[in-house]
Amino acid sequence: MEELINLAQIVTDRRLKVLPLLDFNAKSGANKEMTLVNMLVDNQSRTQQQTIRELYGKSDTASHTAFRKLKSRVQQKLLNHLFFLDESDPRHPISRRYEQQCLSLYYQISTLHQEGEYAIAERLARKALRLAETLEFTQYAVLCGQLLRSMYVDLQRPSNFKSNNKKLAANQKLLALEEEAAQVYWEAKSMLAHTVRSRRLVLEKISAYANRLEELHQVANTFTTFIFHYRTRLAQEELVGNYKEIIRLTTATTRSWEKGTINRKRFDKRYNNYMSVYAHLRNQQPVEGLKLAEDYAKDFHYSAANWLYFLETYLLLAIHAGQYGQAQDLLQSARKSMYYAKQRQAAQQRWDLYEAYLQFVRPEGSPLRMRSFNAFVQTVPSHSRDKQGYNVAVLILQFLYYLRQRDLEGLLVRLEGLRKYQQRHLRDAGALRSQLFFRLLAITVKSDFDPALSQQLGEPLLKKMQAAPPPGEAFSEIEIVPYEDLWALALEILKVTAAQVTEESRHLV
User: Which residues contact 79 (CB under 8 A, 6 or more apart)?
Assistant: First the structure.
């Protein structure tokens, strides 16, 4: 009871007169802070000028000054509410709720220690240490051990000090190993996140990175060293296009998680699910991948940073499985997301390109107007200066567009562009499918747009393309629509065009 009395005295004596929080239970319009918050979350586009007029009824100098102060207060109070987020939703990473517990306990312990409440602080510190070690949060275990070290000196308990020091030293060694693993992992990750050139450079080093991480994990055997090694292994297989191995690895890891051999409170199964469906897409198993994506989608919260990335793969699986209606629905779901506009410009351009492909392949099912589509195809930007991204997809779409338009001049220009692009950027063996498809498209022009002759001349190339192994991330882009389907579409365009030409000639006679 004495500890509770002391805690009550500390809180009542030191409490703030006004809590720096928002009153979400206040009636609508009761104060300008909540009025502004409600305006921010109602998802309506307002300029700052419009917001000020709505709040103050006018837009003069005094209103602008008041708004700056209001905005600053609201921002700080919203930041304060980050301490009280609900982390119980299973669609968020499960580890976050436990990390929040560790952080909250650490703050409470350090505050009580500073206030001289050693007994309760020591008890909470031991609890926090046990929690951190169970969850394999080594960095928090070290912090708790350091707090206990000073407490045992203040409490004059040498035996506790000695045993704590032994445990602290062991955790510090583990943390040093984890820090080295983090350095190796993030160095590899930084190279993977940039250009094609850097990806090809990391391809030469990725085995060494993976081997060093495996060595560190064998010594430390913590969740942190495991996850760094595991993700690097997946990246290694992804670079060389061994998607079958990624499917095997993700399946085996899921089984280990289900058995409890991997820390269930730390492992983010959503990442594993994403890698599995992505590998099915790249391994040309869209039907199986689509089934998995439909099942895994429920594990992602719409506000999660990686939800839209998962949705991209989900949409591509639907396209590759020929489910264009489902793909269109997924596209609209992405567009309606309040987080869509927060994506980087390159990500939003990818969604534009997906929509353009859906419009081209299935124009009757797309809400995109033909005029907008025509303008987009003719002005669509390249997705990266060093030709990483979706540049091949852009060039192919433009060629097919001019083929459908029967625009010979535009086709010849695009054909020359395809030839130059292939010579400069598709010389590696990993880009074989794109090389072959570019040659297939060239046949349509060389055959003078004859559908039967194009099909005949293209048959050997088509068989070679079908037999080509899926390229790795270091070499190639994702095919938005499988090249086989696009070739069938190109032949269909030639047949329709030939029929139209025949009909036009018949009327001229």
Answer: none
Helix (H) / strand (E) containing 149: helix 138-154
Token duo for residue 489? 């579409």
Query: Would the pTM of this model clear 0.85, i.e. be above it?
Result: no
Distance separating the N- and C-terminal Cα atoms of the chain: 107
Query: pLDDT-based confidence at 384, cuts 50/70/90?
Result: very low
SS3 content of the chain, % helix, strand, coil (to 5): 75, 0, 25
φ, ψ dihedrals at 137, nearest 5°: -90, 80
195 DSSP 8-state letter: -
Distance in angstroms (rounded) separating the CA atoms of residues 97 and 282: 34
Find the DSSP H helices in 81-117.
Answer: 95-114
Q: Quick one: CA dihedral 83, 90, 178, 212, positive or negative?
A: negative
Dist. CA 316–CA 294, nearest whole Å: 13
Lowest mean pLDDT among 71-80, 258-267, 373-382: 373-382
**Tokens 């930041």 found at:** 79
For tokens 């919260």, what's the residue? 301
